[in-house]
Amino acid sequence: MIEPRTSTGGPADRSAPDVADGVVLVPGETCWRIERAARYAVFVDAADYFAVLKKAVLAAQRRVLFIGWDFDPRIRLDPRSPGRGRDDRLGRVLETAVRDNPQLEIGVLQWGMGAVESLRRGVLPAALVMRRAPERLEFFGDHHHPVGAAHHQKIVVIDDCLAFAGGIDVTADRWDTSEHLDRHPLRHRPTSRRSTGPWHDVTTLVSGPAARALGDLARERWESGTGSRLEPVEEVEPCWPDGVEPLLGDVDVAISRTRPEHGGTELVHEIELLWLAAIAAAREVVYIENQYFANRRIAEAIADRLGEDDGPEFIVVNPESAVGWLEEKAMGTARARLLDVVRKADVHGRFRIYVPVTDGGRPVYVHAKVLVLDDRLLRIGSANLNNRSMGLDSECDLTIEVREEDARRAELTEAVLGMRHRLLGEHLGVEPSAVAAAVREHDGSLIRAVESLRNRTGRTLQPFEPPRQHVVDRALAETELLDAERTPDRWGRIKGSFRRRR
């Protein structure tokens, strides 16, 4: 196994989080704040999310803030609805909202290099499309970050009383339904009728104090990126979109961030510490959906737990390959190398990595960033399993944790497991109840349950095997030239704290 090493970047190491009671979420360590959500919902895949977002924007009273990695005003938000297609385009929806409500202001803050990224993907930059936007509809590119970094958060805050946060960018190539058809007539770029590939993604919706906290974060980003200070929205009635069924009500939600050291601000790597704490705390199974598997520290932490006689199972759902040659060179080669580390440590057969495929065998691109820990923690956000999401890019994840003393423990546990089974059911082409039944049938083993439900053909999860790596690929992965570590290593202390608890 590769020997662990200490990072040369970031601040000096501190003590491990206080986990005497076994709690994973610790403000100031693994999260920024824990706030109550009056209602909490999850959107799996972008079709329903975009449709609800449209309604929420049109119903906004005072302010809408978009904080994103990418943004395309030409996309349709609800192509399944009747009416003229041009009226459904994001840019037209925003213009209609400010025209119909003289009190409404809408701000869009996109990563400053997003224009270059858009051109690389063959998409017209949003700044050009929105150059004639009406007053009270502002667009800015955010360049306030270290060289080589990206603003990767995906947040929409409406009137400080409603907030979306997760992995779905409001841009092209994201729209899809959970059926993930091989070809969908509505799944295409704004300027083409050619069908784009199936895309899997997840985001959340919160109201109440949790939404207001995300409003604080969004306004902080706005001021950092534009130099303009926004005051909180006051005296707005509680809001929730019609027709959206919350997963939970009156629940605590933790907000975890990555913020790089830059311009006088200190490094914040709550998301990395949350990952490590969750892996250390795991008792039975860790379920992961992510765009990448390219973070050495997380992989080594998983390998460490796999070596234990009674350690947990790990299931990872990844895309078959990254988008673009450079991304695949950086992330694909790192994944191949780290999978070798993990599989060598997996002496008890408790690790699996899968790729979801359509009925026709076409790989589904996994862009979701989800972590389910046992039956007691659900994390959904923007952070990838790579080094840059832990210390270089700006990120935002939301987490619910079930505590042993909670009077609603059974209800919260059911919601956490229900989301895990909902996601696996989508990938396996079965109902969530079938996943739950298979887990019971196999005495709690999620790996054996998934293996019993996998199909040889059609919609299913296929085991992933990395392609053969060439000498240059291995060298890139070894040097981490394209995705370097930037945070202090705290795995040993975190693991020790949770080992004592277990």
From TrEMBL:
Residues 147-174, 362-389 form the PLD phosphodiesterase domain. It comes from the Bacteria. The keyword Coiled coil does not apply. The keyword Hydrolase applies. Gene3D superfamilies: Endonuclease Chain A. Transmembrane segments: none annotated. This is Phospholipase D-like domain-containing protein. Keywords: Hydrolase, Lipid metabolism, Repeat. It catalyses: a 1,2-diacyl-sn-glycero-3-phosphocholine + H2O = a 1,2-diacyl-sn-glycero-3-phosphate + choline + H(+).
